[in-house]
Specification:
It is built from 10 helices and 6 strands, in the order βααβαβαββαβααααα. By secondary structure, it is an alpha/beta fold. The longest helix is centred in the C-terminal third of the chain and has 17 residues.
Amino acid sequence: MLRYVIEKHGESRSFPADEPQTHPLLVNAADHPETHGPRDVLVLIGSDAGAALSRVKYPAAWRAILVELGTECLGVHTGEDRGDEGSNVLGFARFRMGQAMPTALVELVRQPNSEADAIAAAREALESAGLKVAVCNDFPGRIVDRLIRPYLNAALRRLDEKLASADDMDKTLMLGLGYPEGPISLLHRTGLAEHHDVSQALYEALGDAAYSPARRAQVAKARQSRG
């Protein structure tokens, strides 16, 4: 049976303090191997997880090491080398939309030469806790944010242009495309300022104007900063 250890290094966005700390991934973690023998997977969670990677003793002894990511690339923490990077170290993030609680989706980040056994062990550890795993290559924002942030920015810009009311835009996308919630409602429920932060980070990393935060997100961030 695969066993894994969790180390907490700062506040985790994937497993926040305001979520009940009864998630199966947290509850079923084993004791650290320095105390009770060998384990398969080391999971580093928290805002300082990347920095903690350099302090892991005997990293090659683990089948896989998982590092919680924000919007950044895994290569920020492992280094990159001529497109040949990869080892038993993988990145991960449990998708979370703004202030909403994290979802069951985990984006598992691999590099060009990531070890197949590490990917298999990481997937097994995550899926054993009921999480749904999508494997992606090492890009800023991974899959969901790369796809959804331009769409949300576009919806905000069309609202400014008075294409339609917020309610009619939401209704059209829900009825026309089968979305469970419209973009304006989603942003107001989960936080325009939080959308600004993610979009701005991707805009700075990618240089694509589609990620530049829309005006309404900028206003929300400014109001948040003023307290």
